[in-house]
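Lab notebook, design round three. We kept the backbone fixed and only want residue identities now. Task for the bench partner: fill in a sequence for the structure below.
Input structure tokens:
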């Protein structure tokens, strides 16, 4: 990803906009035929003036979801069911797939039986220990006998603990037979269907949550120095205006540049996941030319404005920045003092 400053949007001051929109009275004068052979259409004429505008640097990136996961299992077995489809919304904890775990069910039964056996041994050892403690207190049993039953009781206690740990281990493995959504989101890819063989770590489903998007851009250290965590900047996602909160800054791999991450709230899914994004990073002020968006004439990918000349008008092609409200910066093609037409009605086909 790279940063660019040539196509950046700019912000006029109130005073500057007032100076910019010097409107001629009534309709534009009827000039002689221009070089293009057309007279100036009806509308109002304004004089272009240099304006103090807020300078920003456009840093390009991609709007990626903050939460994205590839769901898999630690088990090796047959997929018995995939309960969702691509594009389906799921809730946190929702069951999305199951794996054949009959062997684990058998191990779980054995583990529970082991716990029952260990607890029976423990109860017997505890009874023996209690009896010999009483006998030892009445001098009817030796110290060696008491120590032996106490040791047996300790072993029985350890046996119960080991058996219960075996149950917990089997239960933990058994949980991997049920694949559940770790967060609310949308299924973006289904890698396996029922009947397929699942290997440990092999993808089953892909899930992402688009309610929060992260835009990552790379900028120079001098640009990053003016940013702080929590700072709000403007930007775009697929040309839609957004507000982004700076999440963090860190040196980019390779050195010499900084990575800037900013978060965009997207609870209604208005902004495209994976869409081209731009962060408008403030860079002070500078002088530029702003014109009304209504003055722009378009032919395909080309943009132009009608400029009043001594012989009528001419359609002059210009390079524009990103529109901001009713104004847009003319990056090239116009200069201070040019008089342009803001047409009363949109020109057909342009």
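Proposed sequence:
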């Amino acid at each position: 990803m790279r940063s660019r400053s040539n196509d950046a949007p700019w912000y006029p001051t109130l005073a500057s906009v007032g100076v910019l929109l010097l409107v001629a009275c009534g309709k534009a004068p009827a000039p002689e035929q221009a070089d293009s052979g057309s007279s100036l259409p009806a509308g109002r004429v304004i004089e272009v003036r240099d304006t103090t505008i807020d300078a920003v640097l456009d840093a390009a990136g991609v709007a990626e979801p903050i939460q994205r996961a590839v769901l898999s299992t630690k088990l090796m077995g047959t997929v018995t069911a995939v309960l969702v489809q691509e594009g389906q919304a799921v809730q946190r904890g929702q069951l999305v797939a199951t794996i054949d775990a009959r062997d684990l069910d058998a191990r779980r039964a054995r583990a529970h039986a082991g716990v029952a056996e260990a607890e029976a041994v423990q109860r017997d050892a505890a009874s023996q220990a209690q009896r010999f403690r009483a006998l030892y207190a009445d001098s009817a049993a030796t110290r060696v006998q008491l120590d032996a039953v106490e040791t047996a009781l300790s072993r029985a206690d350890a046996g119960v603990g080991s058996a219960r740990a075996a149950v917990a281990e089997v239960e933990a493995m058994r949980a991997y037979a049920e694949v559940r959504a770790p967060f609310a989101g949308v299924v973006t890819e289904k890698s396996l269907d029922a009947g397929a063989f699942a290997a440990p770590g092999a993808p089953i489903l892909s899930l992402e949550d688009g309610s929060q998007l992260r835009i990552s851009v790379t900028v120079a250290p001098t640009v990053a120095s003016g940013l702080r965590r929590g700072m709000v900047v403007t930007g775009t996602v697929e040309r839609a205006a957004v507000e982004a909160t700076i999440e963090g800054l860190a040196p980019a791999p390779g050195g010499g540049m900084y990575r800037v991450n900013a978060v965009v709230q997207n609870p209604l899914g208005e902004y495209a996941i994976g869409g081209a994004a731009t962060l408008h990073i403030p860079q002070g002020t500078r002088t530029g030319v702003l014109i009304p968006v209504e003055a722009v004439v378009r032919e395909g990918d080309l943009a132009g404005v009608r400029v009043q000349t001594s012989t009528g008008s001419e359609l002059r092609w210009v390079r524009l920045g990103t529109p901001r409200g009713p104004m847009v910066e003319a990056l090239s093609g116009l200069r201070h003092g040019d008089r342009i037409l803001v047409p009363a009605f949109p020109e057909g086909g342009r």
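Keep this in mind before ordering anything: Residues 73-96+181-203 form one domain.
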